[in-house]
Amino acid sequence: MKDLLNKNIRFAYNEAIEMIVSMGMIACEGQMLALAEDYKLEMDPLALSFHEETQARLSPHTLRELQFFFQYHFLHKGLDFAFYESIGSSVEPQSAEEWITSLEQTPAEKVVAQMVFGVYYDKMDELLQDMDWEDVKKDLRLLSEIVKKTKPQPEVVEAHEPLLECLAHPEETKLRYMQLIRQFYHDAFVLWRDQFRKESEQASLVYKELFHTNPERFIRGINKIDPAIYDIPTTFHISFISQIGNHHLTFNTGTSWIGWVIFGIHNDRVFGPAADREKTELFLKAFSDKRRLDFLMLLRKRPHYGKEIATKLGITPAAVNYHANFLFFLNLIELKREDHRLYYHLDVDKLRELLALTTRVMLDEDY
Fold first, then answer.
1. Residue 257 phi, psi dihedral angles, 5° rounding
2. What global pTM score does this model have?
3. Burial of 100 by CB count in 10 Å (0-12 exposed, 13-18 middle, 19+ buried)?
4. Which of 76, 188, 199, 266 has CA atoms 20 to 30 A from the CA of 306?
């Protein structure tokens, strides 16, 4: 396993990814702050300064356009997936300018089709009705017809009408997103890009050393995923602006599959060792929601994949991701690939450990 991980994983800063993440962060600022509060995390002062300065510098029109393309849900890619795909399908990192130039040369129809995938990736079977995506995505008229008939998941339902608008007017849509991206770059990102790169690359040196010291422990302990998933070349982009998170993206380059991981600069604070009291508080908070308790009870019986959990609990796949993050934080679960699916596994020993820790903290007992 060590040889596989060393072969397939590298660390590299991708400025284009950092820019597109920063656009999403500004658009979803309210959701991001609420999530940070849930996890008892304090935002980095530098990141807060970026948010405050950017909100002040951008025009009302630019902020509205940012909402149009990026706002729908912090944990569910929507129209913005098209921009991630245009960056992530390149094997090598890109500067923001290189990516903007490349996106300008990409046909509007291709980008708009990827917006459809972003909104419906967790409802593709219902959307396509046995049609082949590779064929359907080439026909925007057909895409528009099937999108009209299929509502997306509740958390991105507000993206439905904007998506239809983009499908109906692809060239106008391209003019809008190109203007927005250039405006954001010149009015906001360019002022911070050197600082973002500096912070991210410094953290990357630390994470890279942790990885090479013990690759499997790093992937299981901080990346929180089954190492076997990294059977394709994957680049870890250490993201300052995302702060916390493990976001895995895979793309087809036309000749092979590659992966990118958007890895939060402060992941070690959340997914590494934490204070006992903080762990106890989050452990109790995790099960203050009945659905998270039900989630755990399902896994107690056997591992489940995401769609199974969503169906049995009567929630959406994005809600599964949201609740799973609490359990990831506590090291109670991990993802493993089995039969071409990602299954959530419960760590029973960790559950016992946390129950014992909670008892000691609550009763102020000695260790």
1. -100, 140
2. 0.78
3. middle
4. 266
